Amino acid sequence: MREKRQTIQKGLVWDAVSTATNHPNAEEIYESIAVSHPSISRATVYRNLNMLVEEGKVRRIKVLGGPDHFDHCLGKHYHIQCLDCRRVGDLELYDEINLDTWPMDTHGYELTSYEIVFNGICPDCQIKRAAQGQ
Fold first, then answer.
1. Which CATH number describes the domain made up of 8-131?
2. Pairing relation of β-strands 59-61 and 78-82?
3. Where are the domains of the chain?
4. CA–CA separation, 72 vs 57, rounded Å?
5. What is the pLDDT of residues 79-130, one digit of tens each?
């Protein structure tokens, strides 16, 4: 991964991702930057997010039925997505999942990496469901 030059815009995107307490999607990152830098465009944010992912500085989290989310923590860990509000968070597992040692038929593929996203209902949405009698 070749590091591309640092620009002010890329720095703004990095700051937004690295200081986020959640796993924001590109639109949320754009909105957080636009508050103090209204001239920044969505295209600039998306382009710089992609560059940060390519450079290995940010992890892209692909989720079901929604936009990609981004994480600045690159260490091995897992994510969980709320099926109602689509929020993504970290999932702490007490026993590590290691697919590298699991017997599996990869149909000739060499396994080089994997991304696991668990699905569930977050505490806030559980409360909303209970209030609605679901």
1. 1.10.10.10
2. unpaired
3. 8-131
4. 7
5. 999 999 989 999 888 777 776 677 778 788 887 777 888 999 999 999 999 9
